[in-house]
Amino acid sequence: MNSSAGIVRFDEARPIALITAREAAARGIDSVLIRDVLGRFCLALDDRLGGVPEETVAKWRTELQRRLGPYAAPNPVLLAERLFAAEAVFDSPRVVEEQDSRPTPGQGRIRSLDNTVVGEDWARVTTPSPEVAGVRTARVALYGFKGGVGRSTATFMLGKHLAEQGWCVLVVDLDLESPGSGPLLLAEEATPRYGLVDHLVESAVGNAEGLDLVERASGVSITGNGELWVAPARGRGQDGAPYAYVEKLNRIYADIPGSTHPSFADRLERAVSACEKAVEERSRRPDVILLDSRAGIHDIAAVAISRLCDLALLFGADNIQTWQGYSDLFTAWSTSSQAEAVREKLRMVASMVPNNRRADYLELFRDHAWTCFSMLYDDLPPDDMSGFNPSPEDTSAPHSPIPILFATDLVGLDGAASPGWSDTPLVQAAYDEFLNTATRLIIEGLQ
């Protein structure tokens, strides 16, 4: 609580609500701390196996109202026996164990349920199905907290490199607000009629069958038996009809509460699966899917990292914006008890590394990354090796940076007007270590 003014703000509300939850746990009562879309808290007590005295309920209700002020829900204490569908709260798949609140014998559990308008999928980490019909497909998300770090160019380079190794690769341009890899890999005339945005709009009304979503990359020379396919964010539309991209984009994130329509996260997952199926129908099942995610703390990035991929390459430059942004994101994973589920599929990429001071730059980058990632690692004594707590020098750890050197050839590049740009010696040298390391990580995931 803000002692100088006696006012509770958003950041103080959760620790204050946890005080009452811990009192309940000390009495052996399981509880779920529920935060609504305005940030207000109520405490749901599981009294199905034993009642909670009414005077205790009244006491906790009064204390929560007094302690939380505007961040107390209208009814700050709920009892399972009086809820119409208690299982919707206590057995919800969205409920997560409250951090550092694992019960000891005789104590109750404390769990949390966070209701938000956007961004909920950051706190719901899952792993894609490992294989279909015995065939393994690796899904890799390429993400940067801030734009302008070369993520789409790296997606282009990695897709081309993997295809030249003989793999069937699908690049999905998820940067819907600012399409990047799609225009790099596809000439306008080769773009399919529909894009990801069309599938997201049409699937909301059950009308997504039969969309033309993928095409082979054009203007990219692939040697060997590999294939490179692209699912662009936007399509080319129908001849003679305007392509209403902005109008579609304005509707794709909308979820209709209480309806049978799939959520945005479900629709995005189905869109990626539809693109994967389209490649399989026209050629063969993709070995690797590269998800070129949009930047920032956005629902697309949340779904791509938390739900759609088994490897997430996190791009950044060594500056305060990068580390502050990733710190906020890692804090969200840590406080929602998702650190253990997400940390081992993360790997940091140091983009635009200055070649003339590469070693010093990467050492500083690594140290800053380790400080940031530490909140996702186990807090262990120095001699305890039982958990996951890699050292700063561990080159296989999530924080260990994969470098991409700064290449002057890429400044102001118009890829469509510069055929062969990716094969120049400067560009190849800049991406060499990134391509080799990322390829190794992907192949290890396929085995």
From TrEMBL:
| ATP-binding listed as a keyword | yes
The CobQ/CobB/MinD/ParA nucleotide binding domain extends over 141-264
Which Pfam families does the protein's record reference? CbiA
Cross-referenced Gene3D superfamilies: P-loop containing nucleotide triphosphate hydrolases (3.40.50.300)
- Domain of life according to the entry: Bacteria
Going by the UniProt record, its keywords in alphabetical order are: ATP-binding, Nucleotide-binding
State the coiled-coil residue ranges: none
Q: What NCBIfam families does this protein's entry cite?
A: AAA_KGGVGR
Put simply, this protein is called: KGGVGR-motif variant AAA ATPase
Q: Which organism is it from?
A: Sphaerisporangium rhizosphaerae
